[in-house]
Every structure is written in C-alpha cells, then in structure tokens.
Design brief:
The two termini are 19 Å apart. A hairpin with a 2-residue loop joins strand 12 and strand 13 (232-243). It is built from eight helices and 13 strands. Strands 1-7-9-10-8 form a five-stranded mixed sheet, with helices on both faces. The protein has a five-stranded mixed sheet with strand order 3-5-4-2-6. A three-stranded antiparallel sheet has the order 11-13-12, covered by helices on one side. The chain has three domains: 9-92, no CATH class; 95-181, no CATH class; 186-255, no CATH class. It has helices at 18-29, 36-42, 73-82, 105-116, 123-129, 163-181, 199-212, 247-255; strands spanning 4-6, 9-15, 34-35, 48-54, 65-69, 89-92, 95-100, 119-121, 135-140, 155-159, 186-192, 217-229, 232-243. It is α+β, with helices and mostly antiparallel strands.
C-alpha cells in the first residue's frame, strides 16, 4: 500500500519568444499543449509539467495550458539547454509530495504543519508562494497508485525546507500519523487454497490486486494448514493484511 509518493516536477521557461519555444518543445518531446488541470491529472510520479511564459513573468503560478512530458526534470532541463532554445530564465517549482490519509484531513494538515513548521493552505496557493528550495505536501484520500487531479487534493502544507530532509523525516513520521488518525485498523487473514497446486500464480495475482487497489499492508505470510472438514487437513498459503478498509469490502474486491 502506498501512502506517500512524489508528484510531478514543475518547470517554468521564461522567454521573449514563447510561441517559438512552445513549438520547439512540442517537436523535441513529441507532445502537445494541453489544459493545465488535465496535465496535472494525467501526470505520474517524477514526470515533468513544463510551462512556457513571457520572460517578464515571475510568479510560479501555472498558466491555463502546459506540456506534460514523460521524462524527469533533469532530462528536460538538460535538453532545453543543449538545444540552445531561446530561454532567458528557468524557474523550478517547489517539490510536491502527495500523502494519502483515510480520514480526518484537517487533523493531518495540522499535524504536518506543526511537525515541520509549515503553513496550511490550498495547493494552488502553496505552489504560487513556494520556491524551488521549498516542499509542498498535498493531502488526499485518493489511492496513490493512479493519477491524482488537483481537485482531489483536499489541502496542502507549504514547508520552507528542502525536500530531501522533509522526505526522510516524513518517511518515518507518516506511518505514525496514519495510526494516529485511525487507531483501530482491521487485521484480516486471507487463505489461498488451490486443488491444482498453482499457488505461485494465485499468490502473485492476489498480491497484484492488493497493491493495485491499495487495500493495505501485508504484514505476514507463509504456509499453514486448514481444516475445511473434521479430520481433513489441507495446505493453505496465508496472508495477514492490515487495512483500513472494512472486511466486507476487501472480500468483495478480492472475489471480483
């Protein structure tokens, strides 16, 4: 289960020739300009949102349209430099980290703001006020294995610290935050039995579903015996799943 991941990198190219730069970006990376909200919604971890604006603009507030590039920021910036595009300045947005919580979004925002000395605000305001050396943590209830739209970020915290330090601390603190927000988790036992002995295939399929649907944390697994009838012993593979989902919902999703 993923409860934390990075968002896309956001880069602004300031130029006196925005149309020429946009055309070059489209040709170099084989992409087209799309609405900003669509670009954010379709972006994945470490991909790049690129915006081309007039050279006099200083705010790091995304315009209405931009480019979604399926490469990391380092590759994009090096390509822009090596191709000698007529760019006057490059502005880099704050590093964006998404954190998923099951409930109590306001409490999570307060906890993070107090813990890291940040300020609670909307995602738009955080991106507008943040600098390249800052970190923005966006809180969502949506699973992190898929794209996340700006409307699904229910609040953000702007932290005036570099993302490496924040990320290292957050990796340790986030599980504690989850248990603070939801003290009572469901511990479920899933048993796999196959008369055709295709255990590896079924276990791999089960793990794939658990991970793709973000159903929880597998905290234990191994072989055991089960007794479907008196004096009838059969081998089963057991997984212990720690989840904030209700057992009935987990069963429904696993049965398909």
């Amino acid at each position: 289960m993923r409860f934390m991941r990075f968002g896309p990198s956001i880069i602004f190219l300031r130029t006196a020739h925005p149309e020429a730069v946009k055309k070059a970006i489209g040709e170099i990376f084989s992409v087209g300009e799309i609405p900003t909200e669509e670009a954010i919604r379709e972006s994945s971890e470490f991909e790049t949102l690129l915006f081309v604006t007039d050279e006099w603009i200083k705010k790091t507030l995304p315009p209405r349209t931009g480019f979604l590039i399926k490469h990391g920021a380092a590759h994009v910036i090096s390509t822009v430099i090596n191709r000698n595009l007529p760019v006057e300045r490059v502005h880099v947005e704050s590093t964006l980290i998404f954190l998923r919580v099951p409930e109590k979004v306001d409490e999570a925002l307060r906890f993070i703001a107090e813990k890291y000395g940040g300020e609670v605000m909307s995602l738009r305001d955080a991106l507008d006020e943040g600098e390249a050396s800052d970190t923005v943590i966006g809180i969502t209830k949506k699973r992190l294995s898929g794209p996340i739209g700006p409307e699904e970020i229910e609040g953000a915290v702007l932290i005036r610290r570099g993302f490496l330090q924040v990320y290292r601390e957050l990796s340790t603190d986030a599980p504690l935050l989850l248990f603070k927000l939801l003290p009572e988790w469901n511990e479920l036992t899933i048993k796999v039995y196959d008369t055709e002995k295709r255990y590896e295939e079924n276990i791999a399929r089960l793990m794939m579903v658990i991970e793709d649907l973000d159903l929880g944390f597998v905290v234990g697994e191994g072989w055991d015996w089960d007794y479907p009838r008196p004096l009838m012993r059969v081998p089963v593979y057991k997984l212990k799943l720690l989840s904030w989902e209700k057992p009935e919902r987990v069963k429904f999703l696993l049965k398909g």
